[in-house]
Design goal:
CATH class of the largest domain: Alpha Beta
Strand content: 25-35%
Strand order of the largest sheet: 5-2-1-6-7-9-10
Number of helices: 8
Number of strands: 17
Helix content: 25-40%
CATH superfamily of the largest domain: Formyl transferase, N-terminal domain
Distance between the termini: 69 Å
CATH architecture of the largest domain: 3-Layer(aba) Sandwich
CATH topology of the largest domain: Rossmann fold
Order of helices and strands: EHEEEHEHEHEEHEEHEHEEEEEEH
Number of domains: 2
Structural class: alpha/beta
Radius of gyration: 22 Å
Mean pLDDT: 95
């Protein structure tokens, strides 16, 4: 079975490895190299790096809408195209080229959290579980029928980065299961997504990372977890702008104005919110590294408990 794989970030790498273990990956599509790092030099995507290490040809078109793109894909004679966090929309004329169509590994239990940031939005919304769907692609955004799925519980203190890694491995397993069935001559049965329960996971924006103390502490704690490791929540605390890497919601006496420091000690810094308080445990000063709240208090004697 000849597979063309399309993916870009680290999330897609385990799925590429799974595809290589089940079929012949004849080419990999990934986003063009982008400037990264302090020197802003061009950097290959994680998927490109994995493909080159395996000796797989890499294609990096800016678009898939041209006749040239269609001809290039057609020349590869793919039986199936597997797409995992690629970053480019696939036009219908591309979807129609592989004999078995195009499969997508998506990090949510569709139709919940269609779109760009399903992992972070699930945590931010307080979902108890999420999962991975293997979907038959169609022109709409994550609207295609589901072939296989697996769910998992979201940990109470799990961050976006931790859930990302678990879902990446789960996605690879679901893909491997689907490819195994196809190799055995068994086509997974497509199940149309229900019309009810559709939500959209809009792309993360750095502006969202600014915490508003007037909101409930539970909402802010989820946002801190969801936005770790990017874009990382930030807030002004005692006149200093800080990035918040770890925090939990706790009960607090009513009456304190949002943003007021209620307590500061070894366990963390308790800040009054619209409801309850946020106990900050890990933070980062401008130009510094992530440190415990206790270490920060060593430099802020004005806040430390007597």
């Amino acid at each position: 079975m000849r597979i063309v794989f399309a993916g870009t970030p680290e999330f897609a790498v385990p799925s590429l490895r799974a595809a290589c273990g089940k079929a012949e990956v004849v080419a990999v599509y990934t986003q063009p190299d982008r400037p990264a790092g302090r020197g802003r030099g061009l950097q290959a995507s994680p998927v490109k790096q994995e493909a080159l290490a395996r000796g797989i040809p890499v294609l990096q078109p800016e678009t898939l809408k041209s006749q040239v793109s269609r001809d290039a894909l057609r020349a590869l004679k793919p039986d199936l195209m597997v797409v995992v966090a690629y970053g480019l929309l696939l036009p219908q004329k591309i979807l129609d080229i592989p004999e078995e169509g195009c499969w997508n590994v998506h990090a949510s239990l569709l139709p919940r959290w269609r779109g760009a940031a399903p992992i972070q939005r699930a945590i931010e919304a307080g979902d108890a579980e999420t999962g991975v769907c293997l979907m038959q692609m169609e022109k709409g955004l994550d609207t295609g029928p589901v072939l296989l799925s697996q769910s998992l519980a979201i940990g109470e203190q799990e961050t976006g980065g931790q859930l990302h890694d678990r879902l990446a491995e789960l996605g690879a397993q679901v893909l491997a299961d689907g490819l195994g069935l196809l190799r055995a001559g068994i086509r997974p049965v497509p199940r149309p997504q229900p019309a009810m329960g559709v939500t959209y996971a809009h792309k993360l924006d750095k502006a969202e990372a600014k915490l508003d103390w007037s909101q409930p502490a539970a909402v802010l704690a989820r946002r801190v977890r969801a936005f770790n490791p990017w874009p990382v929540a930030e807030a002004v605390l005692a006149g200093e702008r800080l990035r918040i890497h770890g925090a939990v919601a706790i009960d607090a006496p009513a009456g304190a104005a949002p943003g007021t420091v209620l307590a500061a000690g070894r366990d963390g810094i308790d800040v009054a919110c619209g409801e309850g308080a946020l106990r900050i445990r890990v933070l980062q000063r401008d130009g510094g590294k992530a440190i415990t709240a206790a270490d920060w208090l060593n430099a802020r004697r004005d806040l430390a408990a007597p």
